[in-house]
Task: structure prediction
Amino acid sequence: MSIFKEMLKSGETLFRDTIVLDYDFQPKILKFRENEQARFAVAIRPLFQNHSGKNLFVYGAPGIGKTTACKNVIRELEEETDDIYAIYVNCWKFNTTFKVFNKICEELGFRFIQNKKTSELFALIKEKLNKTAAVFIFDEIDKLEDTDFLYTILEDIYRKTIILLTNYRDTYSEMDERIRSRLSPEFLHFREYKESEVKGILEERRKYAFVQNCWNEEAFDELVLKCTQTMDLRIGLYLMKEAGNIAEEKANKKITVEHVARAIQKVDEFYIKPKEALPAELLQILDLIKSKPASKIGDVYNEFCDRGSEMSYKSFQRRIVKLEQGKYIQTQKKTTEKGNTTILHYNTVKKLSEF
Result:
């Protein structure tokens, strides 16, 4: 067989639709999250009977479908009725009460609000929403600098369901007691996907993203295994797209194990979010770790406190876990003469931009 038959011709591509590989893409059916989506629907259902809905606190590891499942339910809600507003706010981008109210006003269609104060923004929201009902979804709530807006909404908006999403269960215990007592949420834990479920989801995306039969199955299985190890579907989608691009660069008609292996090499060079967007507290801890390479966690904690910060050691340890999960740092368990300790390393590898 001629080697040229295995090469892409000018204008040929392995991709049918790369949008399907974007993590923000909303599939009509979200596989293996039927139970979780049903919990969203049950929480919202009382709004249809002119009652206030239930509140949900949703938590689970990054990249396992929390946001996508929630948005799917919202899409179905909007198709079902025009009488209930669905408002989604990403608290990474809108992390203060003023920014949150500004975003809600935009979602409700208000214009010319640039010069309004926080109280004026909420007055607009209250007037409009208390004539109807609303579902509020606040995503990545662990990135908030203040939560005053939650107290205000809980007190002054009549018919609503509030859904809070986060990667961390302990975010709830760190919230103001006044908010927790009024919120009284049901807790919804998103379990991690099984390997067979990861494969099913990625196969579904592959079917629409790539031309038929362009994937070597052994290569695809390697990709699924890596995605399962990281427990983050974003990694799987990134690898599929990157492996396809590598194959195209070589003008290959098949995506092989070699292409996937090269794509996997890039995974550890990837940040999900830029560090500049971290909350000030986490940035301060990260800068301390950077300035003191290979320091013990206890030493970093002591210096953090010496600089005027008040935080328990247990809370500090949780912040370290968040930085490690975000791939900003690496931790190393070490045994010394005084016992076991954790060594903190700032991650200096150059990172890829968001995909």
Summary: Strands lie at 56-59, 84-90, 133-139, 160-166, 186-189, 295-296, 329-336, 339-346. Confidence is low (pLDDT under 50) at residues 349-355.
